[in-house]
Amino acid sequence: MRSERYRWVLACNLFAILTVSSGLGFYNLSVYMHALAAQRGFSVASISAAVGLFFLTGGVAGLVTGRVLQRHDARLVMLVGALFSGAAIACIGRVQAEWQMFLVYALFGVGYTGVSVLPATTLITRWFDPASRPVALSFSSTGLSLGGVILTPLSAALLERWPIEHATPLLGGIFALLIVPIVWFGVRSFPEAPAVGAPSPMVQGTEFAAAVRSRFFVFLTLAYLLAMGAKVGTIAHMYPRGVAVATPLQASFAVSVLAMMSVIGRLIGGFIIGRVPIKQFALVTVMGQLLGFVVIGAAQNTTQLLLGAGLFGFTVGNLLMLQPSMLAQAFGVMDYPKIFSLSQAVSTLGIASGPVVLGAVTATHGYLAAFLIFAALSGVAFALIVAAGPVPEGEPAR
Fold it and tell me: Which of 110, 114, 239, 310 is deepest in the core (most CB within 10 A)?
């Protein structure tokens, strides 16, 4: 009974952690990009490459993190992640040369892996049964979007008024000081042992070697490589894209609209997943992303920019939530951290290149061409999910 009560406490704690980590980390990448370009004179292309390194190092670190989470206390992973991330954010304002920027972003990527999707979805997968897991994932991961709604505009306003060398140490300190106490006092890694004779959910599911060789895993992972690359590239450039057609305040509002629609879409998606086939819902989500890219790329004024941000934002949270949901449904709890970390590491190759590709194409051909390319990549991702076949049922109901 205590486990039943605690699991929702855990979901609330993860919600709070993800709110801070995404608001000052993931969604704030475009704000840091704009500040570095404006106050340090770095090119958008070089900052985009640093953002790509952030995701690449995070993906590699995730492979190690997944194996650590398999056997050890998740609090250790999350505490180290919070401290590394906070230190990296604080150092962004001290960057004077490109090599320093790349070093800081690499450190940031390693740290962010420990306080983001991988440990959060691992804990939700362990503590919740298949019936209640979609709602729990939806609720806890809504913090990812809420951070963009609340914290990112505040960060943007702070960086507009303060020099970057004064603002980022404050933001880095807030990051660590908010997350560390929640992790230490509010996170437990494993559910209590089941009653004698009852099967443990920790030993149910498909083994890692068999899972990663399956058609479903391979095609889904390739689809996410493309879809997540296009998604994160767009989020990283959302603020600079907004500044191109609107004021800085309106651009930050577009980021907030994106994040707010992600919250709404994610909450709706959490209830839909348990009622419709999960693969069909994933296909609708990818198609929505494709349409959002077209609108954002073609935007000529604030209204069109907000429309595109809202349409794209409605898909953002669900696209992220569907990957761990489908993998957990297909392969179960037993080797989930290793399975998801590998899928996430591969998709991180796309995530790392997304901001770079968008920045490079924009520099030579403009935003419209860049977003049409991203729309085409989303179309290929749609086809790969279709080709993956039906979702295996690797986890029995508990």
Answer: 114
